[in-house]
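Notes, p. 3: input format for complexes.
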Amino acid sequence: MTTPKKLFIKTYGCQMNVYDSERMAEALGGKGYVPTDRPEEADMILLNTCHIREKAAEKVYSELGRFKGLKAERPDLKIGVAGCVAQAEGEEIMRRQPLVDLVVGPQSYHRLPELEERARTGEKALDTDFPEEDKFDVLKDRPKAQRGPTAFLTVQEGCDKFCAFCVVPYTRGAEVSRPVDRVLAEARDLVDRGVREITLLGQNVNAYHGVGPDGGDWSLARLIWALNDVDGLERIRFTTSHPNDMTDDLIEAHGQCEKLMPYLHLPVQSGSDRILKRMNRSHTAESYLRLVERIRAARPDILMSGDFIVGFPEETEEDFQATLDLIEEVKYGYAYSFKYSPRPGTPAAERAQVPADVADERLQRLQALITRQQREAQEAMVGREVGVLFERPGRKPGQMVGKSDHLHAVHVEAEGIRPGDLARVRIVASGANSLAGEIIG
Ligand code: 5AD
Ligand code: SF4
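Output follows (441 residues plus 5'-deoxyadenosine):
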């Protein structure tokens, strides 16, 4: 028997990259590769990169440089760059870094087996096409292993919104939705392999409009209702959403669909209408606030999460204050905040930039406010009963850790709880980044 080849993948960036890395491992699984978490024993190293913020390419170059010794020891080692940096700068990476044997963009990784073969013959293999064929579909017959209780499932990719700061429409391409029957088949397969919670992914997941089994155009809400009927699946989440695509049926689903969890990541980016307009967001602070009101009317305990960019070109102190005001009004349970970073090729990169020290100082103020809100949201859970899906043992003996319906990390000390168990838990205390609970009954 030949010993299997080993594959080390390092994943940067968003959850969609995590999903893609799993698919890449499956694609190479068909060529006899098994995953390893040790680069020094790998026959192939893949960096699945992210291009969304600053220094993305530099990070890739410095990471690649670290493999120089490994490659000198084992010339058979193949090194590849995948993901959005590969898409944006693949050819240049190959020119500048001779260690790289293979470059594959986010739309063509189903062709990895063929690229791997070319790389094995000593060729420099590059594929950054946007192919016609469905990369997800091509991968469907790969060998499959038992899974943990939670999984991602990409249902939509790309974006047509062209926010002035964002590279996604260029690296991931135009908005594409997967057909409903493919998504449902993949969901059932995940459930058969032990998954109980699925997070539907898309750069603009709520713009989903897949072809239904009836030939009609299905919305995300309709897809969620169909998933609600999948036996053995207990929880459904989705991310990331755009405010303009929060349709009435999706808001209603948050109130009525039993398996849809009370957590919504709905980025607003800024609270200043002037900046929102310059960002090409096509919503206002007020329309966002009214939307959040409607969502909370449908599901009062929903936990809101968001993304914020500070120091967008021309942002004044007054604009920034409007963002803080919006945050005060919404009261987020969780948020991600970023200092604006100019991305080559995007419209905002050409504009007058806010000085770095000003942006840093604003980011600190915003993060202090968000941290306070996060703590308050956690403290408000104390005394309440929630569902918890347990995922793994905690740090202390006898401890199990899982996620609540509202996506808080919860730990309990209890006998007989196993990963994949879903239990009712009373929250008894709130810590820095997690809640403590007790199993009910
Ligand atoms: N600079 C800073 N943050 C950005 N994001 C996207 N592009 C940029 C950029 N150029 C943030 C947005 C988005 C999240 C995924 O990343 O907040 O919602
Ligand atoms: Fe980027 Fe805007 Fe599209 Fe989100 S909606 S992926 S921020 S362009």
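The chain has three domains: 5-127, 139-379, 385-439.
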